[in-house]
Structure formats: C-alpha cells, structure tokens
Amino acid sequence: MTAQITPVTPVSPVAPVPRRLRLRPGAVVGAIMIGAVLLLTAIVPMLPGFDPMGQDLRAAMLPPFTDPAHPLGTDALGRDLLDRIALASAVTLGMTVLIVVMNALIGSTVGILAGYFGGRLEALVTLLSNVTLAMPVVLLLIAICAVLRPSAGLTILVLGCTWWVGYARVTRNVAASLRRQDFVVSPLTQGGDTIWVLTRHIVPNIWPHTLIIAATDLATIVLITSSLEYLGLGVQPPVPSWGGMIFDGQRHLGSDPWLSLLPGIVMLLAVGGVQFLSQQFTAETRGSLLRKGGMR
C-alpha cells in the first residue's frame, strides 16, 4: 500500500515587530521627553478655565511663573501661553500623525503593487517617484497657496501626497524579492488567489519595514510642518501652532524671549523624544527582521 504524501505549503517567514523595547538610556530619555509633551497635550485641556483663544489685554505680556492664573505667562493679547501651547501641540502632532499615516498607506500600497507585478507598473511607479522627488515641497505648497487659501487641511493634503516615495521604494524592493520565494510561488501554483497571497504573505512581511520608515519620519514631518507654520503656510490664526507661536514671539525676543522659547522647548522635547524612541525602535525591529529572516 502506497502512502499518499500531502503537499505542504511553505510558511511565510513573517518577522514581527518586537513586543517590547529594551530599557536602554536612549529609550528611557525619549519616553520621558515625548511623555511630557503628551501629558501637556492631554491634561491641560481638562483643567478649569482652559481657553487658548481668550484675550485679556490687562494681563498682556505676563512673564512665566508670576501669576497663578497664567503659569507660563501670556502673550501680547493676554492669551494664556500654557493653554495655547497645549492646543498647538495637539494640532501639530495630530497633523504629523495623519501625514505619516497617509504617506505610509500610499507609499506601501504603490510599492507592493509595483514590486509584486513588476513590468510597466513598476516603470510607471519609478517615473512617478522621480517626478515627486524633483518637486520641492515648500515651493509646491507656496504655488498652491497662491491659488488656494493656506490651511491645515491643504498642508496635510500636500505633504500626505508627496512624502510617500521612501515607503514606495523600500516596499517595492522587498516585494520584488518576496515574489520569487517558495512561500509565495507555491500557493499560486496550487491555484491560490493573488489577493490572498498579497494579504497573507506579502503584506505581513512588508509592514515592519514600513513601520521603520514611519518611526524615522515622525520627527522630520514635525519639523517640516512647524517650518511651514512659521512661514504662514500651515495652520492659520487664531488657532495656535508651534511654528506660528515662534514666529509671533520673535518680535519680542529682546524683551520677552519666553514667547518663542516656550513653544520651541516643547517642540524640541517632541522632536528629541521621537528621535530617541525611533532609533531604538528601528534597531530592535531590524534585529528582529534579521533574526527571523525577514530582511532580504
């Protein structure tokens, strides 16, 4: 009696993101820095009397730590700086996360399709990537703002549709290498569906690479959005933003430097914390990819 051998489909070597980060000094410092910013953003709006737009000219230009009602002082219109910095943090960080998510989704989708199917689609994506890289984002946004009114939504749309090239290039290369692997070819030869193969074997092996790029992009996008806000191309007054508050405060640098220093310090904490955490996250994830065989 002859034994029947059932063919076994090779298993996709999915490389998971590490479940925890080792408590290294850089990660601890980064967590403390970004945690302080997040606590400021979350707790201050819940305090009694929170009013980042309220004006009181009688209490204008109060220095920090001189009035219990305004712990960080007030600006030239008597608006509470603590309230405005908290709202500015929520606005800038929210825009940053949304932009990074948009770029990750667009770039990863385009890169996976180009790398998996190849041919003319890959050539088209390569051409589109080169054209996108050749366009300076700031000049493009200035040109669009000359026609349309500058706004936070416009900034999100422009940056969300122009910063995806890095994701596309990495995911295209990974998808191109994965499509030749046994765990991808074998299900197709046995009648497997292309969509099933993409979602079951290609995407799980690519999203760790996408997370690495997204983690390193967070600090860059914060700086870009703040720079655009400083130039008046992002969030528009009276809604506060880090870049806008720094721009407004620079008129008083000689007499009242805290107007620019306080939002600048908060932005420094956010960018520095994200950088420390992203470097640790990137190192841990790459190590996991190498150990699991996901880095090809």
List the helices and strands and how they pair.
Blueprint: H1 25-43, H2 81-117, H3 119-134, H4 137-147, H5 152-160, H6 165-178, H7 182-189, H8 194-230, H9 242-249, H10 258-292
Q: What is the structure about, briefly put?
A:
The protein is mostly helical and 296 residues long.
Written account of the structure:
By secondary structure, the protein is an all-alpha fold. It has a single domain (about 25-40, about 80-290), classed as Orthogonal Bundle (MetI-like fold), CATH 1.10.3720.10. Helix content is about 65%, strand content about 0%. It contains 10 helices and no strands. The protein has helices at about 25-45, 80-115, 120-135, 135-145, 150-160, 165-180, 180-190, 195-230, 240-250, 260-290. The chain is elongated and about 80 Å long. Residues about 1-10 have low confidence and may be disordered.
